[in-house]
Amino acid sequence: MYNSRIIGLGTYLPDNVITNDYLSKLMDTKDAWIQERTGIKERRWVKPGSDDTTSTMGLKAAKVAIERAGIDKDDIDFIIFATLSPDYYFPGPGVQVQKALGIKTVGALDVRNQCTGFLYALSVADQFIKTGMYKNILVIGSELHSHGLDKTTRGRGVSVIFGDGAGAAILSREEDNSRGILSTHLHSEGEHAEELTVLAPSMGAMRWVTDIIKENDPDDTSYMPYMNGPFVFKNAVVRFSEVIKEGLKANDLGIKDIDMLIPHQANLRISQFIQKKFGLSDDQVFNNIQKYGNTTAASVPIALTEAWELGKIKEGDTVVLAAFGSGFTWGSVVMKW
Question: Does residue 202 lie in a domain region?
């Protein structure tokens, strides 16, 4: 059996910076209120009329990752694309990236695990490589939230949190089993699915687009994101802790062995809670939610790439990725860089 190892990373972020002060002109909110509750100072939103979409942002991040990996696009055997905001209801963006890259008939898989999507995608890619099925896999996390947010006071509890962007990684076969991804750990708890959700449009609930348009109800928020913030926070801090410890235990490692923890950028207070609980220094945890907000499936690859670019991750480091989100789903990845 082989290990899989990240050999290339890339990101793409729209250049349209949305500050908290700007949001205060759209809704009843303030910079201090947002920073106190989330840690976010600004985020990136795609400009209306821009050519940026979930798939094109993913494509741009992928091109950077491919170049940094030192491989040709035709060396890619498989594509996994994680997102909750695809360009189309179907097909998913994986095939769009495959077409745009000009890669012939390789498989493309779409992952819908929201904030944990990139970790789920990494886990799938890792298993494909471990079994020898594929050698080089392109994994993408990309989100375009801004076009679907309620930018009024009614929606401020959610709309101030989310940003747009994309991150990508090339996973490749590694024959040295002491390097690369050591283990992945995935969980879900569907009991709480409706605590963080978008309920419509939905085939199952008979709330399709035509029904929403026909009813034309200004108070219908079923197609806007809903989040039970306090409940999500309480569950997140518990599950983050559990799944990080699970990953470390599986590899006979302790908290002291973590060189870099990259948590999903959901809320700075969650990251700080975990950091304090584990007794980690600022040099052992990387956060960039202050600049980009919560980019859901793109959050971990954007943060991982930025930490690596800044020299905060070095060869031989033990790197832990962790995420929690809608579903509820959560997971961790332990790797030796």
Answer: no
Active site residue 228: no
Residue 147 shares a structural domain with residue 187: no
Contacts of 274 (CB under 8 A, 6+ apart): 237, 240, 241, 244, 261, 263, 280, 285, 322
pLDDT, tens only, 187-233: 999 999 888 887 766 666 556 656 666 677 676 666 667 888 889 88
Q: What is the pTM of this model?
A: 0.93
Active-site choice (3, 113, 235, 294) = 294
**Structural element, H or E, at residue 5:** strand 3-12
Q: How far is CA 194 from CA 83, 98, 232, 270, 295, in A?
A: 18, 33, 11, 21, 20
Percent of the chain surpassing pLDDT 70: 93
Let me know whether 170 and 252 are in one domain. no
267 is catalytic: no
Task: Evaluate if residue 335 carries a pLDDT over 60.
Answer: yes
Catalytic residue (one of 20, 113, 115, 185): 115
